[in-house]
């Protein structure tokens, strides 16, 4: 009996291992028949196409075929590639869909997505997804898909969904003009992912181990085309916009009201099927979007993502240089400048810009960006040119090395209109980045070295770092090292702190108990040390131990204990009031207990909560946050975010209480008509902001926006009934914006 058990276990392990390491293939049939995108699949092309089936679980297990199976088919003509999927249901419960808005969260919806790597480099690719009620989602995949899909990228494609009792059917058409690929190619890497949230099952066509994201390109299968792909003719897209705006500024005793307008746009020109030229004139500054406010009580600045269309395609070539907090280039630094008189950042119009990016051949990717901003005498800014040049060479099957140069050059000075290359005002950063991944993706790593050049070198103007990560089903082990020189300060980058050497090892162990309601448990420890760059003393230390539990219901909780140490390098008031400050050289050790809980996201009412309490410099700090969402599927989504930070300080310091309060209402009238109202109150900045936006997508990638925004300085007080009241001190500004964006393919 022991031998029989041993043989059975070995046989089962061999089957599982073989499934998780195989490379499936599916054929894309060339067709001349016209396909109508209606979700019906009644054309002969679909009847004759080769099916891809036998989907394999990715989560909660990866050792069996999916309970909810999916069948996919692919065909193509000279202009378009078509995908279909029949998603069978193993449960008759109602589909779980967050809303009908574009770029939904794949893990939070019943959805299907296509993942493909046209270059076969296991590094860069595309994802196109549809949820069970037909909302679209598209994005780019960078760094092999290890961190998922970036959905900021938008393009033109078509899809339709039909729902039945036992299944739902997806039909997708993606014009070859909308993606980049190697001309003449006959094989792409491809995978298909299905999320059946009703039973909390994620599955893929080509198996992906559960410790990896379903978009990981290493685990794609092969898509075989019946004939080589050719360039589809002229590929030019024009994306003009027109904007009208009424604004009122009531901060002074004399109100200032004005009407203004703006026009501009982008052009996307395919130089080859894999190399794209982007041009912009007076680009869109995402005037219809709003950033989420935070009460920043830390000593360092925070990062806001880029949203402007011009900067998004192939953004990883430029924006992923370095580490997340050591970026030599951050595109949001272009087009804004700090006004010391008002204490706020102001928009600086961009005159024009160009960007060339994409593949030169199967192994070489290039990027070149050039943008110029005009003179602004109010802010003492000359005409300024920004240039970024990048070359990324594939090394091995999953790795690459990148050479980069970031250049900011003043063209003249701030006192005259004369334009010339000013030799005394420039900053350049040259660098080499290496991104490494093993063939099975268990090992991943990044290493870089950057050097800053300026007219008057001060020394210590470089940065370098290494990161190595080992990932299996049970173990996640990481090593991180960073060095940022004392005078390394990229003017077009994001580096919130310099003059440090950082060491951040971490280790985590995950195990999978046999209990039916638990997917996994995890315990981890991660010391994090910041030394001053000459290693003479520790500036910051954080040693955190945490335990977490992940449930089949999609709920999750984690508890952590941290021991921290800080030695200040500049004067700082922990309360954020700055009436009394702690001084540079002061040192503090403190402890913190934290928790986080996320409820079952499949329910119509879900919430998450977090909190921490502990000593804080020479005082104490209590912080907690709550986020609750009610889903009236699929037309309404009502959410509330609340964050509270209480800082208790001894005399003569000030005890402070900061709240950030943000209700949000989203209506999806159809898949093309949306209304979102977002209210944000930030007690730290005494700002109450209302942003209400109506969006009508009247054609693919063409939108009409009507936006009302209102800012107040406020005075928050407690009345005699202990209710929090908001008293408008005076209006800051209001605006009504009408914006039209039109996408035209030539």
In short:
The protein is 4% helix and 53% strand.
| Low-confidence runs | 1-20, 716-728
The top level CATH class name of the domain at 18-225: Mainly Beta
| Cα end-to-end separation | 71 Å
Helix proportion of residues, in percent? under 10%
Any guess at the CATH architecture of the domain at 18-225? Sandwich
> In percent, how much strand structure appears in the residues?
over 45%
List the helices and strands and how they pair.
Elements: H1 2-21, E1 25-30, H2 44-48, E2 56-59, E3 70-76, E4 80-88, E5 111-117, E6 125-131, E7 136-141, E8 158-163, E9 167-175, E10 187-196, E11 201-204, E12 221-225, E13 236-249, E14 256-272, E15 275-281, H3 315-319, E16 336-339, E17 344-347, E18 352-359, E19 364-373, E20 383-395, E21 399-411, E22 421-437, E23 443-453, E24 462-471, E25 475-484, E26 500-503, E27 506-511, E28 518-531, E29 538-551, E30 556-567, E31 587-598, E32 605-616, E33 619-632, E34 636-648, E35 656-668, E36 673-682, E37 687-699, E38 702-718, E39 724-741, E40 744-745
Parallel strand pairs: 1-3, 1-12
Antiparallel strand pairs: 2-11, 3-4, 4-9, 5-6, 5-10, 6-7, 8-9, 10-11, 10-12, 13-14, 13-39, 13-40, 14-15, 15-18, 16-17, 18-19, 19-20, 20-21, 21-22, 22-23, 23-24, 24-25, 25-26, 25-27, 26-28, 27-28, 28-29, 29-30, 30-31, 31-32, 32-33, 33-34, 34-35, 35-36, 36-37, 37-38, 38-39
């Amino acid at each position: 009996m022991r031998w029989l058990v041993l043989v059975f276990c070995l046989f089962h392990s061999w089957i599982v291992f073989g499934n998780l390491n195989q490379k499936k293939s599916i054929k894309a049939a060339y067709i001349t028949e016209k396909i109508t995108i209606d979700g019906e699949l009644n054309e002969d092309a679909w009847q004759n196409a080769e099916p891809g089936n036998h989907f394999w679980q990715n989560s909660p297990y990866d050792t069996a075929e999916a309970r909810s199976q999916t069948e996919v088919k692919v065909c193509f003509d000279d202009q378009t590639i078509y995908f279909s999927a029949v998603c069978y249901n193993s449960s008759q419960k109602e589909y779980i869909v967050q809303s009908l808005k574009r770029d939904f969260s794949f893990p939070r919806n019943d959805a299907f997505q296509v993942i493909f790597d046209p270059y076969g480099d296991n590094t860069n690719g595309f994802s196109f997804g549809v949820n069970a009620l037909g909302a679209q989602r598209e994005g780019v995949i960078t760094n092999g898909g290890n961190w998922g899909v970036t959905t900021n990228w938008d393009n033109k494609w078509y899809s339709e969904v039909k729902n039945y009792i036992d299944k739902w059917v997806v039909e997708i058409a993606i014009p070859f003009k909308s993606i980049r690929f190697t001309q003449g190619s006959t094989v792409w890497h491809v995978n298909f992912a299905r999320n059946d949230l009703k039973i909390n099952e994620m599955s893929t066509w080509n198996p992906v181990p559960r410790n990896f994201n379903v978009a990981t390109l290493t685990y794609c299968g092969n898509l075989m085309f019946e004939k080589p792909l050719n360039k589809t003719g002229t590929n030019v897209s024009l994306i003009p916009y027109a904007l009208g705006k009424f604004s009122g500024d009531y901060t002074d005793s004399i109100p200032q009201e004005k009407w203004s307008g703006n026009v501009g746009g982008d052009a996307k020109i395919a130089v080859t099927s894999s190399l794209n030229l982007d041009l912009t004139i007076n680009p869109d500054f995402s005037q219809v979007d709003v950033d989420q406010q935070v009460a920043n009580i830390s000593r360092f600045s925070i990062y806001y993502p880029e949203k402007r269309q011009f900067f998004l395609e192939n953004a990883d070539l430029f924006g992923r240089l370095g580490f997340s907090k050591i970026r030599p280039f951050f595109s949001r630094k272009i087009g804004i400048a700090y006004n010391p008189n008002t204490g706020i950042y102001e928009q600086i119009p961009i005159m024009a810009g160009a960007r060339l990016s994409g593949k030169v051949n199967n192994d070489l990717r290039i990027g070149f960006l050039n943008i110029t901003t005009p003179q602004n005498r109010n802010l003492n800014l000359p005409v300024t040119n920004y240039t970024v040049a990048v070359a990324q060479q594939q090394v091995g099957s999953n790795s690459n090395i990148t050479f980069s140069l970031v250049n900011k050059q003043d063209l003249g000075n701030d006192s005259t209109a004369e334009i010339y290359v000013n030799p005394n005002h420039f900053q350049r950063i040259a660098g080499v980045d290496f991104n490494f991944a093993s063939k099975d993706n268990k090992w991943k790593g990044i290493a870089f070295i950057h050097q800053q050049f300026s007219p008057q070198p001060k020394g210590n103007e470089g940065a370098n770092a290494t990161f190595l990560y080992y990932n299996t089903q049970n173990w996640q082990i990481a090593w991180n090292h960073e060095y940022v020189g004392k005078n390394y300060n990229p003017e077009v980058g994001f580096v919130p702190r310099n003059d440090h050497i950082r060491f951040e090892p971490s280790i985590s162990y995950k195990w999978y108990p046999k209990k039916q309601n638990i997917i996994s448990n995890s315990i981890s420890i991660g010391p994090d040390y910041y030394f001053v760059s000459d290693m003479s003393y520790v500036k910051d230390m954080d040693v955190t131990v945490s335990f977490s539990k992940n449930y089949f219901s999609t709920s999750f909780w984690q508890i952590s204990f941290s021991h921290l140490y800080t030695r200040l390098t500049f004067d700082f008031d922990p309360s954020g009031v700055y009436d009394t400050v702690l001084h540079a050289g002061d040192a503090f050790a403190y402890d913190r207990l934290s928790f986080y809980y996320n409820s079952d996201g499949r329910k119509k009412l879900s919430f998450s909560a977090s909190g921490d309490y502990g000593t804080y410099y020479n005082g104490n700090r209590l912080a907690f946050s709550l986020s609750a969402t009610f889903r009236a599927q699929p037309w309404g989504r009502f959410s509330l975010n609340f964050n509270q930070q209480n800082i208790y300080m001894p005399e003569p310091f000030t005890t402070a209480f900061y709240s950030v309060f943000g209700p949000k209402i989203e209506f999806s009238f159809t898949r093309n008509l949306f209304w979102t109202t977002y209210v944000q109150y930030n007690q730290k900045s005494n700002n109450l902001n209302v942003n209400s936006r109506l969006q009508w997508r009247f054609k693919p990638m063409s939108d009409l926006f009507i936006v009302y925004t209102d800012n107040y300085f406020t005075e928050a007080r407690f009345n005699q009934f202990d209710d929090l009241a908001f008293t408008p001190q005076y209006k800051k500004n209001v605006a009504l914006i009408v914006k039209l964006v039109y996408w035209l393919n030539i």
